[in-house]
Amino acid sequence: MMKIGTENREANFEALEAEARQGAAELTTAEAVENFRLAWLGRKQGRLKQLSEEWLQNAAADQKKLLGQRFNALKTLVESLLDEAVARSRNTGWSDEALRVERLDVTLPGTRRLIGAEHPITRTMNELVAIFAGLGYSVGVGPEVESDFYNFECMNFPPGHPARDTQDTLVIAGQERRSQRDRLLLRTHTSPVQMRTMEQQPPPVRIVIPGKVHRNDAADATHSPVFHQVEGLCVDVGITFSDLKGTLDYAMKALFGSSVKTRFFPSFFPFTEPSADVQISCIFCAGRGCRRCKQSGWIELLGCGMVDPAVFAFAAEKQPAYDASRISGFAFGMGVERIAMMKYGVSEIGQFFAGDMRFLDQFVG
Q1: Other CB atoms closer than 10 Å to residue 145's CB: what's the count?
Q2: What CA–CA distance (Å, rounded) separates 225 from 213?
């Protein structure tokens, strides 16, 4: 930087003014204008700041007034050159590119933030709930940590039933000394909510129960120790097996399309009698037979049945209106992961829980 000597200061000022004019004339972008401002008027490293410290502070007392006037004139010149450069940028073509790059167009839509998407399991569960909500069902909820009584006993699982085996059920640590009826465990199905609802509400009852369940299963392509179920319960006067068949046939058509057919086969569940397994015509081959349906044309999807009178007997202990001689009902349950795997063509159940964004990004939008 040019130093201001004690002699010929006028020539030095003229050289600085000429330098400022030349620099201002070469400004062609908004960025260059800002750099010019910082170079001359910056509070820390600006040239005028340095000139002031080097010159005015060290000047003799009789020279400070004249030098101060000359310094102020230089500062005024630099500021006016900046104003002219800004005005020129608004009226000449060289600013167009800068404006395109740097301006903020408030009329443009904002950048879309990626806020995630509904998980395929949650999406499938909500879809199932919505189908039954359209039939007048409400949603029932209950705790994941359950007592043996609600999880097994009141659902007509007698002592010694294989489902009570600790190989299938995860018992909460420290519960070993409690009586079997009172011990706490992670619920193995959402059926306990059926009993909790009947204890609190007299018939008629129409509820659908979505939720997470736990079993001590080894993880493989189609099994997980944690999975989700959607169960349903309908209790009223005059409920028949035909009502059950019609309800589930409608639900499967709403879920997979109107061309899907259903059929029922005898089965066994402790809390329903009679019980049935429900199959749907294969959605992949339209019932013609393929690898996924094992060439049968049918896929087993859920279990159901008429509520066993023994279950009503437990409910009648708190709600006498559940008299099996007067009322009847049906229940059903299905695995959400199995349905989601079919709907979205997923071959490994573990992909739902691995947190792999490459997999989950498929469901965005």
Answers
A1: 11
A2: 8
CB atoms closer than 10 angstroms to residue 358? 8
Report d(CA 125, CA 300) in Å as an integer: 18
pLDDT in tens, 139-155: 999 999 999 999 999 99
What pLDDT digit, counting tens, does each position of 60-116 carry? 676 777 777 777 887 888 888 888 887 776 665 554 555 555 566 778 787 777 677
Task: Give the Cα separation of 115 and 276 in Å (integer).
Answer: 42
Full residue range of the structural domain in which residue 216 is found = 120-363
Same-domain pairing of 183 and 332: yes
- Give backbone dihedrals phi and psi of 316, rounded to 5 degrees, phi first: -70, -15
Q: Assess whether 58 and 181 both reside in one domain.
A: no
Query: What sign does the dihedral 127-132-135-138 (CA atoms) show?
Result: negative
pTM of the model as a whole: 0.67
Counted domains in the chain: 2
Q: Is residue 3 part of a domain?
A: no
Number of H helices, E strands in the chain: 12, 9
Same domain, 39 and 163: no
Radius of gyration of the chain from its Cα atoms, rounded to whole angstroms: 40
What is the residue whose two structure tokens read 């063509």?
A: 345
Strand 184-186, strand 145-147: pairing: antiparallel
User: Count of alpha carbons within 13 Å of 318, Cβ hemisphere only?
Assistant: 12
Instruction: Tell me how far apart the alpha carbons of residues 91 and 4 are, in angstroms, rounded to a whole number.
Output: 37
> Is position 128 within any domain?
yes
Cis before 274 (ω within 30): yes
Q: What CA–CA distance (Å, rounded) separates 331 from 312?
A: 12
Distance separating alpha carbons of residues 192 and 215, to the nearest angstrom: 15
pLDDT in tens, 182-223: 889 999 999 999 999 999 999 999 999 999 999 988 888 888
Indicate the DSSP class of residue 354.
S
